[in-house]
């Protein structure tokens, strides 16, 4: 049976960013990582169809794009929640309570690591050091914010605030 899901396609604005990105790199292949970041922002995750789309954009074999996507942990290979909580569980963060933070999130949201709440609002992922050890324990919220010096109370408050946000 033919798949009726529309093929991924960057918006006009993202296509323009993609063209600008290409102009900053000596080859199309060299622009793969920034193009994948654009794809993550646009589509939320890198599906096999998105891998094919990126491969076409950059004139690369899909197998090469797939190899890069699967090598780097930061590329989501399945849909994640609106709010993606990436909690660092390397040693400095663990020494300052990362395990309790993760347990509190799991307990509050009723999900395990690498899972998303049924309403699609929150995902949890434990990750390696995010280079913010001096403010341990910490988490990265989506791709753009570090929430630092966490306590069980502060992370539960964060979840409540995010759940209330309409945007
Ligand atoms: S160990 Fe957690 S940010 Fe470095």
Give a brief description:
This protein has helices at 12-23, 32-43, 48-58, 62-71, 91-95, 98-109, 152-164, and strands at 83-88, 115-116, 122-127, 139-141, 145-147. It is α+β, with helices and mostly antiparallel strands and 167 residues long. The protein has a five-stranded mixed beta sheet with strand order 2-3-1-4-5, with helices on one face.
Please state the structural category. alpha+beta
| Number of structurally distinct domains | 2
Indicate the CATH class of the largest domain: Alpha Beta
Count of extended strands: 5
Low-confidence stretches: none
Mean pLDDT: 94
Query: CATH topology of the largest domain, anyone?
Result: Glutaredoxin
**Helix count?**
7
Compute the gyration radius: what is it?
A: 18 Å
**Biggest β-sheet: count, sense, barrel?**
5 strands, mixed
User: Helix fraction?
Assistant: 40-55%
Q: Please tell me what the overall shape is.
A: elongated
Question: What does this 3D model show about the protein?
Answer:
- The chain has helices spanning 12-23, 32-43, 48-58, 62-71, 91-95, 98-109, 152-164; strands at 83-88, 115-116, 122-127, 139-141, 145-147.
- It has 167 residues and is α+β, with helices and mostly antiparallel strands.
- The chain folds into two domains: 12-71, Arc Repressor Mutant, subunit A (Orthogonal Bundle); 83-164, Glutaredoxin, CATH 3.40.30.10.
- The protein has a five-stranded mixed sheet, with helices on one face.
- Helix 1 (12-23) runs antiparallel to helix 2 (32-43), helix 3 (48-58) crosses helix 4 (62-71) and helix 6 runs parallel beside helix 7.
- It is elongated.
- Residues 88, 90, 92-93, 129-133, 136, 138 line the site of FE2/S2 (inorganic) cluster.
């Amino acid at each position: 049976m033919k798949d009726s899901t529309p093929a991924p396609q960057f918006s006009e604005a993202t296509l323009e960013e993609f063209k600008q990105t290409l102009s900053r790199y000596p080859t199309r292949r060299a622009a793969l990582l920034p193009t994948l970041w654009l794809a993550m922002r646009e589509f939320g995750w890198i599906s096999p169809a998105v891998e094919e789309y990126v491969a076409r954009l950059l004139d690369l074999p899909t197998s090469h794009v797939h190899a890069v996507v699967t090598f780097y942990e930061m590329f989501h290979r399945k849909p994640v929640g609106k709010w993606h909580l990436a909690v660092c569980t390397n040693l400095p963060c663990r020494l300052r309570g990362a395990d309790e933070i993760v347990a509190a999130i799991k307990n509050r949201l009723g999900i395990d690591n690498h899972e998303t709440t049924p309403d699609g609002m929150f995902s949890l992922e434990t990750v390696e050091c995010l280079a913010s050890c001096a403010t341990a324990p910490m988490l990265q919220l989506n791709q753009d914010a570090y929430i630092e010096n966490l306590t069980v109370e502060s992370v539960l408050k964060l979840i409540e605030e995010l759940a209330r946000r309409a945007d």
